[in-house]
Task: structure prediction
Amino acid sequence: MSSPPTIISPDTLRGSPRDRTPPGQQLTAKWPVLHYGQVPVIEPSAWSLRIWGLVECEVTLDFARFEALPKVNVKCDIHCVTHWSRLDNTFTGVAMKTLLDLAKPLPRAKFAIQHAASDPDEDWTTNVPLAEFAGEDCLLATHHDGRPIEAEHGGPVRAVVPRLYFWKGAKWISGIELTDKDRPGFWEVNGYHMHGNPWTEERFGW
Ligand SMILES: Nc1nc2c(c(=O)[nH]1)N[C@H]1C(S)=C(S)[C@@H](COP(=O)(O)O)O[C@H]1N2
Ligand SMILES: [Mo]
Result:
């Protein structure tokens, strides 16, 4: 099997580690665990992804169909709104663009609302403008640095949107809803920013 192509996130090409560290962030080599609620433990055989809303064809993929799609490696940096950044991560999975191309968003679709399985079952969501969500470096990942993503980090499948703060990637992702209007998700309702650009410190407030 040939290895998947590698995409380097544009922010990771900014230069030295210092140039790659947004204002107000501290570098860490560890990978902290952050989320609301308990870790839902999801077997790959029980995982599925639904893409719906303003799309030409609603799509539901089980893990086997997801695994059969072309893979990519994405090299990127992680910036958490709680002030830690972790450089040089390699995530492997399916490019968001590949998944969106299956569903074919309608021209009036402007936002992607990610939905996640959660425990308690609360429909955890987060919102990203579709143009950014479809970015070349965005993916649904099954692996990090060559190893399967553990349940506590959102396995079996989590979203990664490298150019926004890390909360804009759903762990345990279960759905992508395309909408014409922006809608705050879980952390956004709790005060986090609607957009979340780490370079301009869009941490809190709308
Ligand atoms: N389903 C779900 N995804 C989530 C969250 C959450 O509470 N639930 N928290 C977000 C936040 S605030 C961060 S910083 C990252 C943390 O990912 P990590 O635990 O793998 O570092 O996941 C994001 N994705
Ligand atoms: Mo976070």
User: Anything to note?
Assistant: The chain is about 10% helix and 30% strand.
